[in-house]
């Protein structure tokens, strides 16, 4: 039995996810630019040296932006196990936002301490400045996060935290919600199987999604900014199961 298990393990295809591709690209770029820098002279060598140092830093910044906004795109489909429950994934996304708050607070605290040291503030003033910086960072992140109530499809109290930026689109929000409830609804069924509604609004948002985009020559994706349809950070959104509600 162990022999057959080994054979199945060996025959299992290797998963080439975006993380592996990014690391391969960075490795090749760094080796190539480093080799060229060693064989170059004068200002050309300086250019390649700066590139070798600056390029990975730029990629790191972009990586954290993607990790903050769309962490799920860094995984290949085979990375997700069939045994993973949807609610576990939703909780993990919420945990990611919580960690984002901690990162923002840490960065704000470091900046506040640097300012305090530069102006030679005493211990009491420094602690107060750091505390206010952390509070401001937490409030800023909170106001940029929309809370999506998924209770109609998942267990009661299940929520999704979606970070709303100036460039966030309707399509991105609907995709994130669909990923969370995909075990219960088919693709491209917004308006038929489910809809979303702002907590304080009387009616659900009807004129959004794929059907709206196709009827208004937007292709098959609603690329409007969330602000254009009245969705902002700090708000609460309810997902409605149309089959259950009978709407």
Secondary structure layout:
Elements: H1 2-11, H2 18-39, H3 42-69, H4 86-118, H5 123-143, E1 145-149, E2 159-163, H6 170-181, E3 194-198, H7 210-215, E4 236-241, H8 242-245
Parallel strand pairs: 1-4
Antiparallel strand pairs: 1-2, 3-4
Helix pairs in contact: 2-3, 4-5
Characterise this structure:
This protein is α+β, with helices and mostly antiparallel strands and 247 residues long. It has three domains: 2-77; 81-138; 144-247, Roll (Ubiquitin-like (UB roll)), CATH 3.10.20. Helices cover 55% and strands 9% of the residues. The chain is built from eight helices and four strands; from the N terminus they run H-H-H-H-H-E-E-H-E-H-E-H. It has helices at 2-11, 18-39, 42-69, 86-118, 123-143, 170-181, 210-215, 242-245, and strands at residues 145-149, 159-163, 194-198, 236-241. It has a four-stranded mixed β-sheet with strand order 2-1-4-3. The longest helix has 33 residues, at 86-118. It is flat, with a radius of gyration of 24 Å. The chain starts with a helix and ends with a helix.
